[in-house]
Amino acid sequence: QVQVVESGGGSVQTGGSLRLTCSASGLSFDEYAMTWFRQAPGKEREGVSCISASSAFLYYADALKDRFTISRDNAKKRVYLQMNSLKPEDTAMYYCAAYGYNDCSGPWWSEHGSSHWGQGTQVTVSS
User: What pLDDT does 17 receive?
Assistant: First the structure.
């Protein structure tokens, strides 16, 4: 059974940092690209970042690439999202998922390409 669990969320002030962790089990982790998404209240889920199975390819939403960094540790079956200079508009539930193409090719930013979603971890940024 595939299980994906996000952790590391919390409440921070504007300008603060958080590091999210996604732990996966029950799948051949090193064969999957992994994605991070977020969903703010009343908004659609949006793609944040994608990392290929080998970490060779990294992709970010344009508005986030200067502040967010994705990484992974295949030995530990974990994906990380380092978020710096956080803003109130970053407030959202953050989700991790496995992507259908191991090199992040295709529209990784669309939630329809990812599966095995976790329950999410809440990030709240106050001004």
Answer: 98
